[in-house]
Amino acid sequence: MLFNSVPYAVFLATVVGVYWLLAPMSQRLRRARGRVDPRLALLLIVSYGFYAAFDLRFTVLLAATTCVHFAAGQRLATSRNPEQRKLVLAAAVSFTLLMLGFFKYFDFFVGSVAAVLERFGADASPATLGLLVPWGISFYSFHALSYTIDVYRRDIDATRDFLAFAVFVAYFPQLLAGPLTRARRMLPQFQNLPIRRDGKKTQEGFELILLGLFQKVAIADALSPVTRAIFVDTTLGPAPPRNSVMLALGSVAGAAQFVLDFAGYSNIARGSSKLLGVELPYNFREPLTRSRNLQDYWRRHNMTLMAWFRDYLFRPLRRRSSGAIRASSVVIFVFFLSGLWHGANWGWVGWGLFMGLAVAAEIEVNRRRDRHRRALAINRGTRTRSPVSQAPTKRAVAVEVAAATRTSTPAPLTTRRSALLRVLAPLYCVAVLGISIVLVRAPNLESAWHFYVDILRFRWVPLDWDAVGLILYAATAVVITDRREHHLELAEGRPDPVPPSRLFLWASMILLIIIFSGTVAQPFVYFQF
């Protein structure tokens, strides 16, 4: 039941209709303590039904994860013994990571070890299991882990409401591909579901669903002919002569396709949840058009996943040492784990290491630049003082630094330069992402290597102008949708009249969705994670 399919539209309309029909009953039962909110039970039933539509067998894993982490939270809440609390945390985390590792990484690691042994002449015959990766296992595992870790840290109180916790783990809009939410944000919403429908939230929900469908169907899926023609498997035979410019454009198109596919899912998830009166966190904030550098890009792309790694991996590891080398190593390690989390193959591992090195290098360059600027500013201020004057106070140094760093450049020139940087900075981020995405979009690492070699050869072959036109259309559509999404974000929760220009934009989006929809709904990329 894909988000971009008719069955999901029917499913969502039915759930939303029944949900609000039950609102008066919920209001009456809420006055009687100890009564279960029927809409909470409805959300749990439809969430498990939604998951069972993909594979009924894997609902057992979802239920087991829910029960283990709920029980762990209860035990952590009652125990005052530090060693016992550590043991409970270790048991819950081990259960989840072992389950995740077995289903997602067992065949990958066994196959990798066998390949290494074969390199040294051993006759390895790996006993892979051919396991299916349960849909969304990486996401609901991280949901449950965040709750248990937060309870262990005493950042939140353990909930005694099993029904609300089960909905938190299995909530259907976020179940398969996020956004990754935290219990402190979601549990209070599930325990106090709104009684009256908010017209503004409903409008925002429908527009987010429309934006998400447009990003997925009319941009990401529309770029599929370009990326299929470019990312070919060279192990099956030599690739035909390829234009270097076309390959570079294709890598950028592949990166944009990957981002927009997931951004579209996140917007549909947030819009679906808004129709139920439940707020999901932002997961994308225009990373392709508003990023200032790679660090800012990763504050805008898959925000909830990066926040998860920041809070539960980066900060605990970074806290042990304040050295620059240690910090860079932790950044690379976190991105390496992020790559491995995305996919159990060497392409994703390479992507994680490449992106970690790029971000760590950018952090180090910025740190050295800022240190040089501070030293230069202090030196300029020092020259203006008399040699026999007393040592400056901290306040004097601060005043001198502020004075030294003031620019005498005319305002119009600064404005033009800032406007240029606003254009170049996102292009730089997209270029780096395009270079890295080859590792995962190419069928294998050998094909990725040939892709890089063909780009550097600067071979000229007549351009595929249809593909170029499609890329230009996609770029224009990205700018327009990101601009509208930014305005929607600024107007969230406030009156936002609909002018004729927006009606025209919505009609154009619907038309393009119909044109590019095809006959079979294409699955979202992140469903495989």
Helix/strand structural class:
mainly alpha
| Percentage of residues in strands | under 5%
Helix-strand topology string:
HHHHHHHHHHHHHHHHHHHHHH
The main sheet comes to:
none
Q: Judging from the principal axes of the Cα atoms, what is the shape? A: globular
Tally of helical segments: 22
Low-confidence stretches: 386-416
Secondary structure tally: strands: 0
Task: Classify the helix fraction into a percent range.
Answer: over 70%
Euclidean distance between termini CA atoms = 17 Å
Provide the gyration radius in Å.
26 Å
Q: Averaged pLDDT, please?
A: 84
Explain what you see.
- This protein has 529 residues and is mostly helical.
- It is 72% helix and 0% strand.
- α10 (199-220) packs antiparallel against α21 (465-490), α12 crosses α19 (411-441) and α16 packs antiparallel against α17 (346-383).
- The chain is globular and about 75 Å long.
- The protein starts with 5 loop residues before the first helix and ends in a 13-residue tail after the last helix.
Topology:
Blueprint: H1 6-21, H2 23-31, H3 38-52, H4 59-78, H5 82-119, H6 137-153, H7 162-170, H8 172-175, H9 183-191, H10 199-220, H11 224-230, H12 244-275, H13 287-290, H14 294-300, H15 303-318, H16 324-342, H17 346-383, H18 394-404, H19 411-441, H20 445-456, H21 465-490, H22 500-516
